[in-house]
Amino acid sequence: MGRLSTDTVGMTEGIGVAVLVGMTLLVTAIVGLNVLVIEDDDGGGPQANFSYDYVADSGALIVTHERGDEFEAGNVEFEGPDARVTWAEVAGREPAAAVVPGDIVQLSNGSAYGQRVRGQDTIRIYHNASGNRTQLDQWDGAN
Q1: What is the extent of the structural domain holding 109?
Q2: Which residue has the higher pLDDT, 27 or 117?
Q3: Which of 34-38, 41-45, 105-109 holds the top average pLDDT?
Q4: Per-residue pLDDT tens over the stretch 91-128
Q5: Does 9 have pLDDT greater than 70?
Q6: Which residues are CB-neighbours of 16 under 8 A, at least 6 positions away?
Q7: How far is C-alpha 78 from the geometric centre of its chain's CA atoms?
Q8: How many independent structural domains does the chain possess?
Q9: Same domain, 66 and 110
Q10: How far is CA 118 from CA 90, 96, 136, in A?
Q11: Which of 3, 13, 24, 130 has a CA between 20 and 30 Å from the CA of residue 114?
């Protein structure tokens, strides 16, 4: 059997290092392109933040859309212990009207909600479009 000369061993190690460096550069380029070029589609669904002001004397809950996605008023639902109503109904707006940050509605017996909000009630806010119902937020009472 023949022995490998030291020249051949040195060339083999050099080729191996070059291949590893090339693969590292390729992987780094692919990851970099994914981060910089390809759009991020998180598929997390609609998102919004709401603030709440509870007026115990009148049993009213004032809900403000603080920030987040824009919604159609007919697709935003409020669900309490004994009531379910859309933003459009409570605000007296068309179902296709936009609900944007800064919009305010009042849940009370004087609105389409039709009853007082009690301090121990839980009010959930949902986005309901095309049969997909996603909870956006929740008010856990004034306690």
Answers
A1: 48-139
A2: 117
A3: 105-109
A4: 999 999 999 999 999 999 989 999 999 999 999 999 99
A5: no
A6: none
A7: 18
A8: 2
A9: yes
A10: 18, 30, 21
A11: 130
Q: What six digits make up the tokens of 97? A: 């009207």
Residue type, 109: N
Give the closest residue to 83 by CA, choosing from 123, 135, 43.
123
Q: Are residues 35 and 53 in the same domain?
A: no
DSSP state of 75: G
Residues of the chain above pLDDT 70, percent: 85
Give pTM, 2 decimals.
0.68
Residues 58 and 19 in one domain: no
How far apart (Å, rounded) are the C-alpha atoms in residues 128 and 134?
A: 6
46 vs 36: CA distance, rounded Å = 24
